[in-house]
Design brief:
Length: 180
């Protein structure tokens, strides 16, 4: 095995070892902390880091700014995104932070208008993106498969693993898993 291959394998192993969500659940009651999500929008290079929920209440300003960056960037149209979807993204980010990874979630897609959805390759006809209940993206330096696995652990809804295209789909719908 060449050194370069070894390093790749070793870092993949490290990521796999980070997959100890049970340890995270024991160590921190992260759901009682203010819920902040940090997003980077690939298409527009926008970035926001906003708290949308704290002390048992929605923080409307932060929530709206997150909805805005999750808009349909083709139609330039935003909707109220599912707070449960934001909780899923927050859970993913809390898990990453627990493992010392402080990076924005690279966002390919959030809300989609019916037109954009119909013109998105591989999109489901009744996609939850059209209801503001789904997110597609990745985190640089984190194996997409690890993200998908953590999504499954969270049990917040559907998880799609798109290995070749290097992103995961997360939604707040029925719990299910598929490979794209
Ligand atoms: Zn999707």
């Amino acid at each position: 095995m060449q050194r370069r291959q070894f390093l790749t394998a070793a870092s993949a192993g490290v990521i796999a070892q980070l997959l100890t969500p049970a340890a995270m659940a024991q160590s921190a009651d992260f759901w009682s902390l203010p819920r902040t999500v940090w997003l980077y929008r690939t298409a527009t290079r926008e970035q926001v880091r906003e708290t949308y929920f704290a002390d048992g209440k929605i923080i409307w300003g932060g929530y709206e700014r997150l909805c805005q960056i999750l808009r349909d960037t083709h139609a330039n149209e935003a909707v109220e995104m599912s707070p449960v979807l934001l909780d899923i993204l927050y859970g993913v980010q809390a898990w990453l932070a627990f493992n010392g990874i402080q990076r924005p979630l690279l966002t390919n897609s959030g809300y989609r208008t019916a037109w954009t959805n119909a013109n998105t390759e591989g999109a489901a006809r009744n996609s939850l993106h059209m209801e503001g209940r789904a997110w597609d993206g990745r985190v640089p330096g984190v194996a997409t498969e690890s993200l998908a696995r953590f999504g499954l652990y969270l049990s917040g809804g559907g998880v799609g693993f798109y290995q070749a295209k290097n992103f995961v789909h997360l939604d707040d719908g029925r719990m299910r898993f598929w490979r794209g």
